[in-house]
């Protein structure tokens, strides 16, 4: 029986605490009950806070803890999960210096040498891990809407906000708020095996095939910068994305050299000009798929591509879904 410790703090998202507790407590249990078999639990859980005090969540619910996280030893614990920050991030971080300092002990932990995930965060909980220096030079993800803020605050982290779950060494991160579903199933698979995880996903009716939060992200977050030349170029791209666009044409429009264009565009938006153009086209395709009955062939042409199969592969890579699957899920 493995122990999962969830870290509670004031302003946390209640569902990211109670939901994860439900998943781990019922792994090996619900599926067995459905089929009239003896339950075989794999995990015990406990909610831990600073001094064992109750945890006041952002929705007004107060959760009672089962102890203090200060009693945990990084080299002796099975799995620790930091939930979503529901309150303003700029408020929660300075209110929790003790928690951030305590999390720092996992930086040098040798427990992860077994290949198991030992520490995980959901959504904006990654800010607490990054603040403790745990994500330096590691791949991580967080809620797509806070990715720009995260990159500015922690440039040393290899942030991949399009991913729903990342694992780098003994640390895992999950994306947007309800991604604790995906994180929980992923961690159950790592700690209890693929069969238990599949049964858990089926019992809870969770789409275990999700691997991207890109379908929910927006291009607007890439405009939060102060480079006027790049902003003007972004405006031009968003108006002319269906045309044939080359790097040479962009250097002419911007007045920059090729090297300066690529460097400044990457610095401002976190992406290359070509990657940004692709994102604009995929975003336009999403709108067509959500709001029209146009065939995929016509949408492909309208967003600047000629080959439907190439476009479909790119769409799947960017969104995690085929055009048809995306339309089925998100059509209004």
Automatic annotation (TrEMBL):
Keywords recorded for this protein, A-Z: DNA-binding, Transcription, Transcription regulation
Bilayer-spanning residue ranges: none
GO terms classed as biological process: positive regulation of metabolic process
One function term, GO molecular function aspect: DNA-binding transcription factor activity
Domain HTH araC/xylS-type: 231-329
Pfam family, one: DJ-1_PfpI
Protein name (Swiss-Prot/TrEMBL): Helix-turn-helix domain-containing protein
Lineage: Bacteria, Pseudomonadati, Pseudomonadota, Gammaproteobacteria, Pseudomonadales
């Amino acid at each position: 029986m493995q122990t999962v410790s969830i870290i509670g703090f004031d302003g946390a998202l209640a569902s990211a605490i109670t939901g994860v507790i439900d998943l781990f407590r019922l792994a090996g249990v619900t599926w067995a009950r459905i089929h009239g078999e003896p339950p075989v639990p794999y995990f015990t859980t406990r909610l831990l806070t600073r001094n064992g005090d109750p945890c006041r969540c952002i929705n007004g619910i107060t959760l009672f803890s089962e102890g203090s996280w200060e009693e945990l030893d990084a080299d002796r614990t099975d799995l620790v999960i930091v939930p979503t920050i529901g309150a303003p991030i700029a408020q929660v971080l300075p209110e929790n210096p003790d928690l951030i300092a305590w999390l720092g002990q996992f930086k040098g932990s040798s427990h992860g040498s077994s290949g198991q995930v030992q520490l995980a965060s959901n959504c904006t909980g990654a800010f607490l891990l990054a603040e403790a220096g745990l994500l330096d030079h590691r791949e991580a993800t967080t809620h797509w809407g806070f990715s720009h803020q995260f990159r500015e605050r922690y440039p040393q982290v290899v942030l991949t906000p399009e991913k729903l779950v990342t694992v780098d060494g003994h640390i895992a991160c999950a994306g947007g708020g309800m991604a604790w579903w995906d994180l929980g199933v992923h961690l159950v698979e790592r700690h209890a095996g693929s069969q238990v995880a599949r049964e858990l996903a089926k019992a809870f009716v969770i789409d275990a095939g999700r691997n991207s939060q890109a379908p929910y992200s927006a291009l607007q977050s890439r405009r939060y910068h102060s480079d006027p030349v790049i902003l003007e170029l972004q405006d031009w791209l968003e108006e002319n994305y269906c045309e044939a666009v080359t790097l040479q044409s962009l250097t002419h429009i911007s007045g920059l050299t090729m090297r300066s264009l690529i460097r400044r565009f990457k610095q401002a938006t976190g992406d290359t000009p070509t990657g940004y153009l692709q994102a604009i086209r995929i975003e336009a395709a999403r709108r067509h798929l959500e709001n029209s009955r146009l065939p995929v062939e016509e949408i492909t042409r309208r967003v600047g591509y000629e080959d439907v199969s190439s476009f479909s592969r790119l769409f799947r890579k960017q969104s995690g879904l085929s055009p048809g699957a995306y339309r089925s899920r998100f059509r209004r």
